[in-house]
Amino acid sequence: MNYPLDIFMIPIQLIVAWFTVYYTVIAVFGMWHKKDKNLAEPKNKFAIMIPAHNEEAVLGALLENLKLLKYPDELYDIYVIADNCTDRTAEVAKEHGAYVLERHNEELGGKGYAMDWAFPEIFKSGRSYDAFCIFDADNLVHLDFLSVMNTRLLRGQKVLQGYLSAKNPTDTWISGTFAIAFWTVNHLWHLGKYNLGLSSCLGGTGMCISADIVKKFGWGCDCLTEDMEFSMKCLSNGIRTCWVHDAIIYDEKPLTLMASCRQRKRWAQGQFDCSERYIPILLKEGIKRHNIMILDGIMQLLQNYFLIISTVYLIMTYINMWTPCFTVILYNDALLPRQFWSTLGTIQYLLPLVVLLQIEVPWKIYIYWLLYPLFMYSWIPVTFLGWKDRHKKKWVHTIHTRNMNFKDATLTRKKEIDK
């Protein structure tokens, strides 16, 4: 029996099927990693950039941490971009020996604008660098970070993203489930794409970008997800963003649901904005260059749209159970046996647990894993609101207060460091 809604619902089911298989394949290729233990001799000189807006509470710990990096002191300098600060951020940076770039422009506030301003300022300083590393003020950085990035740069990789971990995963169930989400994405998305030879995406912090890329293309990224925007700018020019699994960064996860929703809504706004601008560009360039890697970047930009489509499909499925209104092809043996889709669904639920077992997290995280589906469902309203406000560019500052040193942040996750 055919229903009028089939013209709408059968394409939706095919889209859901395609994305489900795609994500599963990527995840399978992210299940292994060979640690590179033969790090190259230090050669590249780095400029470490820390955009900071009123971050006096946490900045000092990061600056002390960066002094301990296992890399020659003369081969890296630290710059703090004090962006529209009204607290002691600039003073704290100076007290810890960092170069301070103070910026005052409240009309164009936010990280993207701050970095766009800071790169020319560093170039004008007369100091020469081979690459830039960008961290957020609330971060802590693994001591091998620059050594690992130096090795990758010497292999010819130009745009690099480090492993995004959490420094406070056991504080609340929100910070815990947020951490699980990041760990899962690190392994089952970023690492999988890297192992397949595809391009990953910059994550806002823990980034390393070759100086010649910045000189050639500039920064020029001012959407609310300037990291994704820069990745797509590079990808449209055939430059791959490479995942660096052994260069670890620890950042502060939000403690409350509302704080996490505000942050994720900002990400969703920026991602929708970025997708509208770059999907046509990537499609054109990918076809023109016959480049699968460039075309695959479109899949990254479609993720939020997939979430919206999946939500519509889920709601319609429940309606269909009580009042049949469309033909079910996914779980009715019409496309593939229902056992196939049930197996994929089970695998996707269990994969985060596999990741947690790999990196040996604190026992509390396994309790949070039981709540993980609730956190994931909270992405649905956040994503819809992000789509609604996708053209708004007002930057909302995330307040950071969790001050800890590197040893405390990594004490319970030695396996993550040694993986």
Layout of secondary structure:
Layout: H1 6-29, E1 46-52, H2 56-67, E2 76-83, H3 89-95, E3 99-103, H4 111-124, E4 131-134, E5 140-141, H5 145-154, E6 159-166, H6 173-195, E7 207-210, H7 211-217, H8 226-236, E8 241-251, H9 257-289, H10 292-301, H11 303-322, H12 338-359, H13 363-377, H14 379-388, H15 406-410, H16 414-418
Parallel strand pairs: 1-2, 1-4, 2-3, 6-8
Antiparallel strand pairs: 4-7, 5-8, 6-7
Q: Classify the helix fraction into a percent range.
A: 40-55%
Backbone CA Rg: 22 Å
The major pleated sheet works out as: 8 strands, mixed
**Structural shape:** globular
Mean of residue pLDDT values: 89
Describe the structure in your own words:
- The chain is globular, with a radius of gyration of 22 Å.
- Helix 1 crosses helix 11 (303-322), helix 2 packs parallel to helix 3 and helix 6 packs across helix 13.
- The longest helix is centred in the middle third of the chain and has 33 residues, at 257-289.
- The mean pLDDT is 89.
- The chain contains 16 helices and eight strands.
- It has helices spanning 6-29, 56-67, 89-95, 111-124, 145-154, 173-195, 211-217, 226-236, 257-289, 292-301, 303-322, 338-359, 363-377, 379-388, 406-410, 414-418; strands at 46-52, 76-83, 99-103, 131-134, 140-141, 159-166, 207-210, 241-251.
- The protein has an eight-stranded mixed sheet with strand order 3-2-1-4-7-6-8-5, sandwiched between helices.
- It is of the alpha/beta class.
